[in-house]
Amino acid sequence: MAPVAVPLGGRAQHTAVPVIGLLDARFAVERTSMVAAFRRGFGEEEYVEGQNVAMEFRWADGQYDRLPEVIE
Questions:
Q1: Residue 46 exposure: Cα atoms within 13 Å on the Cβ side
Q2: CA distance 51 to 31
Q3: Contact 8/19 with Cβ under 8 angstroms?
Q4: In the predicted model, what is the mean pLDDT of residues 5-10?
Q5: Which helix (H) or strand (E) holds 31?
Q6: Residues 6 or more apart from 8 whose CB is under 8 A from it?
Q7: What is the DSSP string of 36-59?
C-alpha cells in the first residue's frame, strides 16, 4: 500500500482540493476494513471526502506487474 498526494494543477487556488491516493497490489474486497479506517483517520483530521479532499483508490488485484499500469 502506498498513499499518494497529488496536487490538482491548473485549477484556481480557491477551488482546488487535495487528492489523496491509495495504491495497493491486493484486491479491493480484501481491504474493505483498511479503506474504512483510512477514511475515518482523515475524517478525524477534518478532511471530508467530497468536501475538502478527494480520494482515489487503485488496486492491482494481486498482480504486482500491474502496479505501473494502475498508477497511470
A1: 0
A2: 24
A3: yes
A4: 53
A5: none
A6: 16, 17, 18, 19
A7: HHHHHHHHHTT--BTTTBEEEEEE
Output the pTM of the full model: 0.68
Q: What is the mean pLDDT of residues 2-13?
A: 54
C-alpha cell at 14: 480557491
CA distance 56 to 70: 11
Q: Say what the pLDDT of residue 72 is.
A: 79
Kindly report the number of other CB atoms within 10 A of residue 58's CB atom.
Answer: 17
CA distance 50 to 42: 12
Question: At 41, which amino acid appears?
Answer: G
Residue 4 CA to residue 24 CA, distance in Å, equals 11
Q: Give, in degrees to the nearest 5, the angle at Cα 49 between 13 and 27.
A: 125
Question: Whose grid coordinates read 487528492?
Answer: 19
